[in-house]
Amino acid sequence: MIIKKLITAFVLLPFLIQTMEAQTKGYEKKIDSIIQTEFGNKEEPGGVFLISQNGKSLYRKAFGKANLELNVNMTPDHVFQIGSMTKQFTAVAILMLEQQGKLNVNDPISKYIKDYPNGDKITIHHLLTHTSGIKDFTKIKSLPSIAQKEMKPEEMVNFFKNEPVDFAPGEKFDYNNSGYVVLGYIIELVSGTSYEDFIKKNIFDKAGMTHSYYASDRKVIPQRAYGYHKKEHGFVNKTVISFSVPFSSGSLMSTTDDMLKWQQALNQNLLLDLNETQKAFQKYKLNNGEEFTYGYGWHLKDINGIPDREHGGSVFGFKSMGIYIPGEDLYVIGLSNCDCHSPTEITQNIAKAALQAIKTSAKKP
C-alpha cells in the first residue's frame, strides 16, 4: 500500500509542479500587462515594481531605462528618490523620540520653536496629521527664489512660518509639506543630531536598509536611477533643486528591496513598540468630531473594502507609490524615474490583482 502511494505521488509530482509553474507564469503575465500600460516602452525612463507577501518577494521586476544618456537598462536594484514617502520615516522618527521620553505628540510646537506664530496652539500631532493650518511652502509664489539654495532647517521654517494660516489647528485635513519640514527641525532640536544622521542611525541601519540615503546630487550613489521630465521634444534631465528645501517632507532615496525591509521592520516592532506603532496607523478626528483617513505618515484607505496603508511621492524627475494590506501582509511598491510615468494607479491595480489571486487560491482545495 505504501509503495502504491509513493508511485502515485511520483507520478503526480511532475503534474503538480507544472500546474504551479503555469499558475505562477499566468500571475506574472497578468502583472506584467498591468505595468506595461504605463511602463511598456523599453527605451524610455522606467520603474521597478515589487510585490511581497509575508515578507517574501512574489514579483520583482524592472522596466525601461535607468539612464538615457548611457543607455543603461533599469534593474530591480536601482536607487530612486521616493519623494513624500519620506514622511513615513519622519513620522516614525518622531514616535521614536516620544518612546524615548524626549517629546510628546501632544506638545505644542512652541515648546521647541519658541517664536513660532500660534505655536502654543499647533501641536506635533497637528503637524503629523496635516491638520495644522500652516501654509504649504509648495504654494508660496517666492519658492523659486530658494529652490536651489542650501537651506538650514531653521531657514526653511522661517521661509513659511510668518505666512497667514489657512485655517485654525484641527479644523480640517489639508495635505501639507510645511508641517513635515517643521517635524524634521524638531527632530534635530530634540535629538541633537542632523535629520540625515538620525534617520540613518536609527532607521536605515537598524532595518538593514543599506541602499537608502538622504538624497544628494553630488554624492556618488551606487545604482542611482537618473530622473527625467518629458517635454514636447522628448526627455530632459530633471530640474535641479536643493534637497534642503523638501528636507524631511521629501528628500530620501531608496530601493524597492529596502522599502520591503522598512515594512518588515515596522511589522516586527523593530523600531517602535506596539503602542507607538499603532499611533501611526490609526485614524484621527477633527475638532468637530469628523474622522479623516490619515494617521501619522500614511493614508489609511481601502482597496475593494479591504483596509490598507498607503502613500505616494512626487519630486522633480521621480514618482513613487507604496501600499500595504495588513490583513494579508501584502506589500506592493512601485518606483518611477520620470514624473511623466506615475506608478500610483498601476500599484493600486497590482494590489487588486494580488488580492484576487490570494482570494482565488484560498478557495482551492
At the fold tier of CATH, the topology name is Beta-lactamase
Radius of gyration of CA atoms, rounded to a whole number: 22 Å
Identify low-pLDDT runs.
5-23
The ordered string of helix (H) and strand (E) elements is HEEEEEHHHHHEEEEHHEEEEEEH
* N-C termini distance: 24 Å
**SS elements, strand count:** 15
Count, helices:
9
Which term fits the overall shape?
A: globular
Q: What's the helical proportion of residues?
A: 25-40%
Task: Return the CATH architecture.
Answer: 3-Layer(aba) Sandwich
The top-level CATH class is Alpha Beta
Protein described:
This protein is α+β, with helices and mostly antiparallel strands and 365 residues long. The chain has one domain (42-363): DD-peptidase/beta-lactamase superfamily (Beta-lactamase, 3-Layer(aba) Sandwich), CATH 3.40.710. The protein has 9 helices and 15 strands. It has helices spanning 2-39, 86-99, 124-128, 153-161, 177-191, 195-207, 256-267, 274-280, 344-363; strands spanning 47-53, 56-63, 65-67, 72-73, 80-81, 213-214, 228-231, 234-237, 252-254, 284-285, 291-292, 299-303, 306-315, 318-325, 330-336. Mean pLDDT is 93; it is low at 5-23. One of its GO terms (molecular function) is hydrolase activity. This is Serine hydrolase. Residues 33-340 form the Beta-lactamase-related domain.
Gist?
The protein has 365 residues and is an alpha+beta fold. It is built from nine helices and 15 strands.
